[in-house]
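Handout, section 4.2: multi-component inputs.
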Amino acid sequence: MNKTRVTELLGIEVPVIQAGMAGGVTTPELIAAVSEAGGFGTLGAGYMEPEAMKESIREVKKQTSSPFGVNLFVPEEDKSTDNDTEEAMEALHPFHEELEMKDAVRPESPSVFYEQVEGALAETVPVVSFTFGVPPEDVVTSLKQAGITLIGTATTVEEALLNEEAGMDAVVVQGSEAGGHRGTFNGRFDKAAIGLMSLLPQVADHISIPIIAAGGIMDKRGMDAASALGAEGIQLGTAFVTVKESGAEAVHKGAILKATEADTVVTSVFSGKPARGLDNRFIQEMEGRKTLGYPLQNSLTKPIRKEAERQQNTEFMSLWSGQSPRLAQDVSAAEVIRNLIGPWG
Amino acid sequence: MNKTRVTELLGIEVPVIQAGMAGGVTTPELIAAVSEAGGFGTLGAGYMEPEAMKESIREVKKQTSSPFGVNLFVPEEDKSTDNDTEEAMEALHPFHEELEMKDAVRPESPSVFYEQVEGALAETVPVVSFTFGVPPEDVVTSLKQAGITLIGTATTVEEALLNEEAGMDAVVVQGSEAGGHRGTFNGRFDKAAIGLMSLLPQVADHISIPIIAAGGIMDKRGMDAASALGAEGIQLGTAFVTVKESGAEAVHKGAILKATEADTVVTSVFSGKPARGLDNRFIQEMEGRKTLGYPLQNSLTKPIRKEAERQQNTEFMSLWSGQSPRLAQDVSAAEVIRNLIGPWG
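Output:
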């Protein structure tokens, strides 16, 4: 995998995309370092207020003139009742107590998606990528009219087809190995947890737009395997969480660097949507307790995660990681990319 | 992947192993066809009585002089109580009723493992492979003294190391994509469901014995990817279930040939051990009901599966399948192997 339709589409040297991880990992420094090294940096703007997002975009542009993207979360309707909310708040009580915090306030999460789209247009980012669904037709139209390249996310063949039909220029095909949120938006999460060895060739047989493989890929071995299976680019998340330029908490980086392939689980307890991370007490003790959907559960647990970070207590943080933590390294972003390209790059 | 340590170890032309699927799929015709085509056929003897196993071995030898193997299940202690058994029998009542069958009889499953080992020694099979654990030291010693090559199964790095330490000559590294039983024997099943993209390179970094990749591999793309990730051989299950020589029920073959990558789940309700297969009513309706461990649950549900087969009712059969059913074909075993080798073989 060297020059592909993905390098051409994104105007980059090597088909390596840094995943748009939300929650502070994707600092302007990380994005710029990846893009400067010939890869493609992505701002994980899913959780960001539109103004903060625009400010980050401007900061990236100060640090690099190379292309980069912004990742947004496609919103879905909230169906929870007041009673659900009460129960979900009650479920978190023991954690507030243990961390010596005040109890939760009722979560509010008005969607900022359309404002984020406006922000991306205003700041003329070259690429916008989407997770949790295919964006509405009006969004696709306005972004395309502005000459912005669009990338979707799929976890099944059917989702890949929906992305192609919606006009995405390329699609990230996310295997079950991937850390962080599952992109599944059309079907059961457990059935859509498909390993890349299975998922890539089956998707490749059904769509024409370029495939970007995501999930467990950390080095040249994974890049070559993804290429053999039909991908024209790769997207790395965990491999960039532990690099020097990443905004991840030091204890999060440390936990990944110490972890094994059998330390992760998929859980909805942090955000309301299934995501893969290192197992810890919060995940274990929340089992069977009431949770809300995304983004309400995310709002509800945010104070706990923040306080746990302050206390450097990894038992109550969301330690997102894919299934290849043994391959994670404490290096620079450029070094991750150099290792991928190999001597023949 | 062409000539590797696996082809050398097993004395075969191409490093393609037909998985030792228990339950009647691995007919002498299938095993012989695979071995005659230059691959490596395996008798899935896990559930077999020693006499039937020996008879099958003799039948294979009539049909081919090429090497083949026998797969055995390493037994574990049963910890269920009489009360557990009563509850598990009761849980199956609605299915017996719907299929118009008599109720279950108390299951008995004395382990036949040591007799199977004796049988393999008596019939001088060239290779014995193991699932569900590392075989006891005395078994390893006696088989090795007889010049028999030993292959283990691992689903994590730790399990691969245990196989290497126990003296296995090679190890099947089973990804979460794989159909049928999970080989996990050291840790939680959910955490040990690791996609091959993650699992193979991490195992390759830790062991020296040759790796045989298993899970979702159906064609040359998968074979090349496995090779890039560090494997020296591949093991195919589902790809051989649907071939003409396979002993799988026609309705099972048909169900796989119609299925998509998002149709499988991992369930313990059929055998007492987690296994991947196509979702159906038995799996759905048994959710939350009492089950026993392997092999008791397997004995308990066998009459239901047999009766469902007789009625051609796939809703109550175990339709084992990996996550790549879209790549399954209704061809001969030799054609599967020819497709793998490719024009450069």
